[in-house]
Fold:
Amino acid sequence: MHSLMMDLPLTVTSVMTHAALYHGDREIVTATGTDEFHRTTYNQSFRRARRLANALASLGCAAGERLATLAWNDHRHFEIYYAATCGGYVLHTVNPRLFEPQLEYIFNHAGVRWVFVDPDFIPLLDKLKDRLPLVRGYVVLTSSRAMPASALDNVLCYEELIARESDVFDWPDLDERSACSLCYTSGTTGNPKGALYSHRSIVLHALAVSMPDATGLSANDIVMPVVPMFHVHAWGIPFRAPMVGAKLVFPGRYLGRPEILHALISAEGVNFSVAVPTIWQLLADHLEHNGLKVPSLKRAIVGGAACPQSLFRRFRDNLGVELIQGWGMTELCSVGTVNVPGPAFAGLDEEAKEGFDLKHGRPIFGVQVRIYDDTGKSLPWDGKTTGHLQARGPTVIRRYFGEGDGAAEDAQWFTTGDVASIDPDGNIRITDRSKDLIKSGGEWISSIELENCAMSHPAILEAAVIAAAHEKWNERPVLVAVVKPGLSVTREELIAWFQGRVARMCVPDDVIFVEQLPHTATGKVSKLDLRRRYANHLQSRKS
Ligand code: AMP
Structure:
């Protein structure tokens, strides 16, 4: 028996309509210069999105066509988010930090026709353009006055393009299961892979992540996404903030500039923000070094990579900010779990409360998780046993874009590539990535645990632990570390630091000091690079 409820689709258009009706005057602020802020509102942005939708129709864009962006977190990117998805096209956010061959692959694999590009990334496209035969033209995200020189063919100016169009546009009726957005993840093996999101998955993700026991978001919040909009929709913030009516504060191109993040937080009263550990570390260093505070900032989400325990403490004790860990993936519309205290938290002893920060929390509504061993056997939720983590739900991909073409290829469970334990309450704790685990004499050693321990040493700025080949034990952990400027620590002191803090067999065999660690395009430490360089370190040391 069918229900008698109205069948209105869950589309990004419904988010826009809601925001326009009830939160139209809420502000969107963007840092457009080191001390220049651009101000607009949701309604003004949606008006410009309608102009852009008319422009896309004039350009002859077809339904489902991929519209790529190479852009920062700003008001223009926000408009494209809405014009592209609500217009029935596929928004394709591209990470400009990827290596050239990866970018070439992604543009061609996705079949990109138009590229919306920030002037900062024109030199990148100048180099790539002859390898992008499918692209019909480029729209530069600036005004006619500021148009940069370029070697590109068919270049248009964004402000000119939308200025000549009407701000009246009838958004098409869209199927909630239709594709609305595409994001590639660079992964660690092979070519990048595309996650193709539906309108429905984006809306359900925005709703689920905004619930109070996830990251919670309300009309009273002032939100600054420091995760790039080219990385899984800045964890959904450009959809979630309009949905609830929160004020949006965009850092523009200054995502890695703590002094500008501080200025934005202070001037605009930002009380909630999301970023990867590296950014929070930069901000904490900057604030502590200059004796500054961020009184308005109450909550900050950290995720995307392992976060050292010391950072949670610095935020809570020195800055009065609750740093909350989340875990997620491109393949999960971003957020999978969030670590907020449940009813059992109050009853924990001090030590357990301290350790709580390092958990990754419970899945958001709709996401199921499970762990299994190498033979495929399901493992218990005892908070100790670790296994390969799988996930499923309406916000999880069932297959990658362009891979296979039938239900037979659809996965029932998505294998994350992460290793985790799950406690009886359903809290997960990521202990490693399958390929980063160290297997010493048949025992698994978690690289994340050792990295956390190294990072808690006052002289260590950044640390990564990799498996190095070992004659007797097959593999042994080796620490690669960056020392904070102005401080010093010896190999012996660091090894001693581990003793008593981790099991004896886990203490790294050696320490390699480096100026900096190699990072991937999404800011994660590239263990692949480190393994390439140091896999035989212990053997070469002996000889
Ligand atoms: P991406 O798709 O680029 O966002 O990367 C997803 C991967 O980042 C996950 O599979 C994890 O390996 C890692 N990751 C995400 N969040 C965390 C976290 N809080 N702690 C440790 N690793 C994380």
Q: What stands out?
A: The mean pLDDT is 94.
